[in-house]
Design goal:
The chain has 14 helices and 9 strands. The chain has a 3-stranded antiparallel sheet with strand order 1-3-2. Strands 4-6-5 form a 3-stranded antiparallel sheet. The protein is globular. By secondary structure, the chain is mainly alpha-helical. The longest helix has 18 residues. A hairpin with a 2-residue loop joins strand 2 and strand 3. Helix 7 crosses helix 8. The protein folds into 3 domains: 74 residues, Arc Repressor Mutant, subunit A (Orthogonal Bundle), CATH 1.10.10; 98 residues; 97 residues, Arc Repressor Mutant, subunit A (Orthogonal Bundle). The chain starts with 44 loop residues before the first helix and ends with a helix.
């Protein structure tokens, strides 16, 4: 499959002054372990938040704080705050001064001509997951996928290791309750709730549980799922590779080991094994019209590129999935 790129990346190339996005915790980094009001993301929240803001274009913050918001969303004050929090974390909404507005990504996904208004495509969820888990701004999620190295764990292990990491970084240690709540929310975002008798619990699950990245094991244990990711599309995967490349290096080579193991890499964020990573890169030249190619010389496995990526090149790869999805809806 060739990723359609014509007309998508003919803009000017980024010069040496281009500011690379952060991929690790900076020296002056301020961690965040709250904001979600102890509610994980739920089905329908991103769509509701987008609709509330987009109905009147640019909306002020009162859309989420005034008493009418409770009636509009049909939930309590704390849950309204959680809906706004997750919409911003997922990149659907952003704050602009005193106003809250929809993002380009939000419009592309959920707008009047959006390709996936009900978040039915796994590609949309993989893109949202990448943007969250590859960004150090989202402290606990980034740490779990990019720093934490235990394949099987329970909540207490995660709490203990996170507290140790906070101490090593010299950050101010939050209360144990705050960290415990944040870990519970993080795990609930990726692990489906235990089925119970009675009404379906699906509505209370997070859509990110569909990705199957963390699995519930016996005796209160969890484990990272290193199995293959068939729902991860080529477009989103290559978007992540190029986004990571742009963030971390100006070189024209990128090693498999970097893509597999470095913090903020596709291997870490998507929980990939080396075999699947290499398989996905085998046809990269065809998928990018030769802009990127695979190389294996003297045992060194890496990607080569012709030069700096043209402007918005990484986004064009993700957009290929958007276009394909729009076409499937129209069919």
């Amino acid at each position: 499959m060739t990723i359609p790129l014509e007309g998508r990346y003919n803009g000017p190339k980024r010069g040496s002054s281009y500011m690379k996005k952060q991929t690790t915790f900076a020296q002056d980094y301020k961690p965040q372990f709250s904001g979600h009001e102890t509610f994980p993301l739920r089905y329908g929240w991103l769509e509701k938040a987008f609709e509330a803001v987009d109905d009147s274009g640019l909306n002020n913050k009162k859309i989420f704080s005034e008493s009418a918001a409770i009636a509009h969303f049909g939930v309590g004050k704390n849950m309204v705050a959680a809906i706004r929090f997750w919409a911003q974390v997922a990149g659907i909404l952003t704050t602009d001064g005193k106003d809250v507005r929809t993002t380009e990504f939000g419009q592309q996904l959920l707008g009047p001509n959006g390709c996936d208004p009900y978040l039915e495509s796994a590609s949309s969820l993989w893109k949202i997951h990448w943007d969250i888990a590859s960004n150090p701004k989202h402290t606990a999620t980034y740490w779990l996928f990019n720093v934490f190295n235990e394949s099987n764990f329970d909540r207490d292990t995660v709490l203990r290791r996170l507290m140790e990491f906070i101490d090593q970084r010299g950050w101010k240690l939050p209360t144990e309750k705050t960290l415990s709540n944040d870990i519970s929310v993080l795990l609930a975002n990726y692990v489906p709730s235990v089925p119970k008798r009675g009404p379906s619990e699906e509505a209370f699950n997070s859509p990110l549980t569909e990705l199957g990245l963390i699995r519930r094991r016996s005796s209160g244990k969890f484990g990272m799922n290193l199995g293959r990711k068939p729902s991860l599309s080529n477009g989103v995967f290559l978007y992540a590779v190029c986004d990571f490349w742009e963030r971390t290096s100006s070189a024209n080579t990128l090693s498999v080991q970097s893509m597999l193991l470095e913090p903020g890499s596709p291997g870490r964020v998507f929980v990939l094994e080396e075999g699947e990573l290499i398989d996905r890169l085998a046809d990269v030249a065809d998928m990018t019209d030769g802009l990127i190619s695979w190389s294996e010389t003297a045992g060194l496995k890496q990607l080569l590129r012709q030069g700096e990526f043209p402007q918005d090149f990484a986004e064009s790869l993700w957009s290929s999935d958007i276009s394909a999805l729009r076409g499937s809806y129209a069919a």
